[in-house]
Amino acid sequence: MQNHHLKEHLYKILVIGDLGVGKTSIIKRYVHQNFSANYRATIGVDFALKVLSLEHETVRLQLWDIAGQERFGNMTRVYYREAVGAFIVFDVTRPSTFEAVKKWKEDLDAKLNLSNGKRVTAVLLANKCDEGRDVLTNNGIRMEQFCQENGFVGCFETSAKENINIDEAAQCLVKHIIANEKDLLQSEVSDTISPQQETGRGGTCSMCFTS
């Protein structure tokens, strides 16, 4: 009997962002393929596990659903420990939640680095796109530029309700985490390559920057 050695990875992924932006809904949609309009506010932190098969490898994503008010607490340092990736979520219908994105990202980068000193892989989720795109359209935000300036590897307009771009965003995150891991293993100090510009995208942001 051949013994096929399957490689297993366990990645701790943070899901952060302001209260009510849909973090729990995104996780429930991704892990359990369902949606409810009335989840209660998460207290502290909640967990979910998603298992993926990629080629000959099993990837287990341990998703940490961190309560929106935790950015102001001291516990985030504990919650962030050993994470290798993060989704930062905002609600496209509420401008204040977009303004908070930078603060969440700064908090994350201040408290957590990979062993080679690089920033943790982060993907931006513009959630509730089924309800409108007020933040994006009214403010003419160039999401590609915002992501590059703030160190996101990609950004996606998502809807947990309509199941839009949740899987794609997760694929983008996992792809970059695996690439980062290979870099760490080879411990090469490679020059950072700036994300490829996509032209003519006019503010839409379903994209994964490939380095």
Automatic annotation (TrEMBL):
Subcellular location: Endomembrane system; Membrane
Pfam annotation, one family: Ras
Topology versus the membrane: Lipid-anchor
InterPro entries: P-loop_NTPase, Rab29/Rab38/Rab32, Small_GTP-bd, Small_GTPase
Primary site of residence: membrane
Family named by the database record: Belongs to the small GTPase superfamily. Rab family.
Function of the molecule: The small GTPases Rab are key regulators in vesicle trafficking.
Name of this chain's protein: Ras-related protein Rab
Organism of this sequence: Triplophysa tibetana
Organism placement in taxonomy: Eukaryota, Metazoa, Chordata, Craniata, Vertebrata
